[in-house]
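Quick check before the chapter quiz. The format below is the same one you will see on the exam, so make sure you can read both the input and the output lines.
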Amino acid sequence: MAYWLIKSEPDVWSFQDQVDKGAPEEWHGVRNYAARNHMRAMKVGEKAFFYHSNQGKEIVGIAKVAALVHPDSTTDDPRWECVDFIADKPFKRPVTLEEIKVHPNLQDMILVNNSRLSVQPVTEREWKIICELGGVKP
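Here is the expected output.
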């Protein structure tokens, strides 16, 4: 199983919005080839950290892939695709970008080295460490 990190600005779509929806939501609007390619690699049931970008800059919960890659409904351009996510569980406490940056075992994390990429893979080791920091079981 692969692990991922997805980013959203909380004033646009927050983890609480995802929870409140109670159903899968299309992860639309991604206009970066690398991020799109990561979504193409996702499988139903895989998990992703839900990261609040700009405001907060913190991982606040976990979402699950609920539907495989499909055309993005917000554009007619066939190059852009997306997957659907559903909320899985919130963190007991957010894990900030600053915490991640100073953690000795997270220095190679893509979030630290390419913080602008909106959809990115997470290693199993990184997954376990961040879940522990967030107070949830991996």
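If your answer matched, good. The first helix runs from residue 15 to 21.
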